[in-house]
Amino acid sequence: MGTWQLIAVGLLMLLGLLGVLIPGVPGPPVVWAAVVWWALTEKTGLAWWLLMGATALLLLNQTLKLLLPGRRMRESGVPWRTLYIGGGACVVGFFVVPVLGAPLGFVAGVYGAERARLGGHGAAWASTRTAMRAIGIGVLIELFACLLVLGAWIGAVVAG
Fold this sequence. Notes:
By secondary structure, the protein is mainly alpha-helical.
């Protein structure tokens, strides 16, 4: 694999890392696609092992990302309907205020739904903070998995 291709794969992985932090951009699939591109070009045993490891890790990541925040949300009593409203407000916010409107829309949507459900500012804000922590845990899990794949890829490129 040439230098320019390696740089392109690395930039694609960095785009995937940014995708973890930017709502609406699929971070782990982009990182995985970069590893697939590299493995199909390299065609070495190390490349195939890294592809298998990255695939397993990113699948485990998706499972943990769905299970852990959901459990925390159920324990705190925040209903799924609130998250759906927050997700809708996230999409609207993304188009009203490009990129920055997505997280603002999510917070506003969750707060509005919880304010309507609970009736007061204090309880609604506490519930919104709980929802934000749960979502944040999912983002951190996803970011850590993508960073592990990126680190393994860098190690494989240096070793190869």
